[in-house]
Design brief:
Chain A: Residues 252-377 form the Thiolase C-terminal domain. The complex is a heterodimer of chains A (387) and B (139). Chain A has 387 residues and is of the alpha/beta class. Helix content of chain A is 33%, strand content 19%. Chain B has 139 residues and is mostly beta strands. The chains are: A alpha/beta (387), B mainly beta (139). Chains A and B meet through helix 4, helix 5 and strand 5 of A and strand 4, strand 5 and strand 6 of B.
Chain lengths: 387, 139
């Protein structure tokens, strides 16, 4: 297999407006995000010859997006997928560029995640859910219809085994909400969270209260991937992909009975090997944060803190600015917004480009960053980026 | 008013499990090729892909321990509004620890539930002809 280290780059990022009621369609949102990313890269729409998206049947198609950008690309692709899809699609894009199929690919996620189809349910037909969800007949009749409950089962066991506490979950939330105070576009800008307030918030579903759940938003994000060679022609500072990896482990997508391992455990070894770096080389991170606990479990998986010491790591403030690994510095999906992972990708690209230089939002001298995706314990992706 | 909550849908792959539940018995799919249990059941073994599957009848005296649990204070699905707080647990079977089954823990307050607590399977007759396997604490 060809070593692709540093041979491909993210050269543009962009987003639509973020709201809880966009009043428009995912196609309009995707067009806004795509135009912003194309402008950021200093390209023209016709320079994009591949379009890809992921969704849960709640978006527009790549074909539609290309059509209304006035582009007739060589390749369009829409996959069904969750929070590790960005990394998987970037890997696909690299493969297509490597084999000469296309030269420059735009990848997007567009959703009316609050006013339209809500990820956490609401209005679903329960019999449809039983059929649509793998193993659904074994969870839906028991009232387990939310990812918060499925992930909660994992979290309860993991916290029991490793000594993580509710307060440790709270440190993830408080750290990310603190980042959001530097991001005027974050939902919770102007709404910081104290540990006292966090601990007094009643549980929605143990071990989680509302702060441990990610947001829901109407929003589209887009990124542009091309070769390092072509990146030289772009206006933006390229962010090079040092390594990228994904995989499935744990059987079934929703009914989890083996809680001893997660896909991120395997992705971690693979991505570090490909990138040729180790956890201590990282300066900044975007860690998939659909739930606070998911961050803690990934800190363990990616070797950022050893199993059993992750709680102390976050309690020491290491996810905050000035900590060992400032993470989700726009506020993450817990407090900025939710586009199924892609808003965290945009933020780490901007950090590594030093877009925030001269402000208190910039992670000083950050050169290498880790971006993780987590569709669930069963499937994960990650990439390591550098400037 | 009839039963308001979702009733398990019988499918090509899971019908023996739910038919047994209706008789207040537990059957589990097993792979004859790699000898591992397969739960939830499927069209092939989730460990090795074999279609050499059989059903093991574990009877009606099913004991286990709580492997993990959550307690929900909001109904995340329609029909559960009168069941709050609702505890959902993964239970490890005593005789076949490789099998872990998700269900609700009944007759128990959330404060009393902990990992490792012993429970036994009890069947809730939810309609005239359907029963739902559940868990109750072993006193």
């Amino acid at each position: 297999m060809a070593n692709i280290k540093d041979r491909y780059a993210i050269v543009g990022v962009g987003e639509s407006e973020r709201s809880k009621n966009s009043g428009t369609t995912p196609l309009h949102l995707a067009l806004d995000a795509a135009r912003a990313a194309i402008q950021d890269a200093g390209l023209e729409a016709k320079d994009i010859d591949g379009f890809m998206s992921y969704s849960e049947n709640d978006s527009c198609t790549s074909h539609q997006l290309a059509t209304y950008l006035g582009v007739r690309p060589k390749y369009v692709k829409d996959i069904m997928g969750g929070g590790s899809s960005t990394e998987m699609l970037i890997a696909d894009a690299i493969g297509l560029i490597e084999t000469g199929q296309v030269q420059t690919v735009l990848i997007y996620r567009s959703m009316n995640g609050r006013s339209g189809v809500r990820m956490g349910g609401g209005g679903w037909d329960v019999n449809m859910l039983q059929s649509a969800i793998e193993g659904g007949s074994f969870i839906i009749p028991y009232g387990a219809g939310s990812p918060g409950q499925w992930f909660g089962l994992f979290a309860t066991r993991h916290m029991h085994e490793t000594g993580l506490t509710k307060e440790h979950l709270g440190h993830v939330c408080v750290s990310f909400y603190e980042h959001a105070q530097r991001n005027p576009k974050a939902y919770f800008y102007g709404k910081p969270l104290t540990m006292e307030e966090y601990l007094h918030t009643p549980a929605l579903s143990t071990p989680f209260n509302k702060h441990d759940f990610c947001l829901e938003s109407d929003e589209a994000n887009a990124i542009i991937v091309t070769s390092a060679e072509r990146a030289k022609d772009c206006k933006s500072r390229p962010v090079y992909i040092m390594g990228i990896a994904a995989r499935q482990c744990v059987s079934h997508a929703h009914y989890w009975s083996d809680l001893s391992e997660v896909a991120s455990d395997y992705v971690a070894a693979d991505v570090y090997k490909k990138a040729g770096v180790k956890p201590s080389d990282l300066h900044v991170a975007s860690i998939y944060d659909c739930y606070s606990w998911v961050v803690l479990r990934q800190l363990e998986a990616y070797g950022i803190a050893p199993r059993g010491e992750v709680g102390n790591f976050v309690a020491e403030g290491n996810l905050r600015m000035g900590g060992k690994l400032p993470s989700n510095t726009a506020g993450g999906m817990l407090s900025e917004g939710y586009t199924h992972g892609m808003n965290n990708v945009l933020e780490i690209v901007r950090q590594i480009r030093h877009d925030y230089k001269g402000t208190d939002r910039q992670v000083e001298n950050c050169e290498i960053g880790l971006c993780t995706g987590w569709a669930g314990p069963d499937i994960a992706g990650a990439m390591i980026l550098r400037n | 008013m009839g039963y308001q909550k979702p009733i398990p849908l019988k499918t090509q792959d899971n019908q023996p499990y739910w038919d047994a539940a209706d008789r207040h018995e537990l059957v589990i799919q097993k792979c004859e090729s790699c000898q591992s249990y397969s739960h939830p059941p499927g069209p092939a073994c989730a460990k090795c892909g074999s279609t050499e599957l059989s059903w093991q009848n574990l009877g009606s005296e099913i004991n286990g321990t709580v492997y993990s649990y959550v307690t929900s204070y909001r109904p995340f699905l329609p029909g559960f509004q009168d069941d709050l707080p609702l505890t959902i647990a993964i239970v490890e079977l005593e005789k076949t620890p490789a099998v872990r089954i998700i269900g609700n823990i009944l007759n128990c307050t959330p404060e009393d539930i902990q990992i490792g607590m012993p429970v036994k399977m009890a069947w809730q007759d939810i309609t005239d002809d359907r029963s739902l396997p559940q868990w109750i604490p072993v006193s």
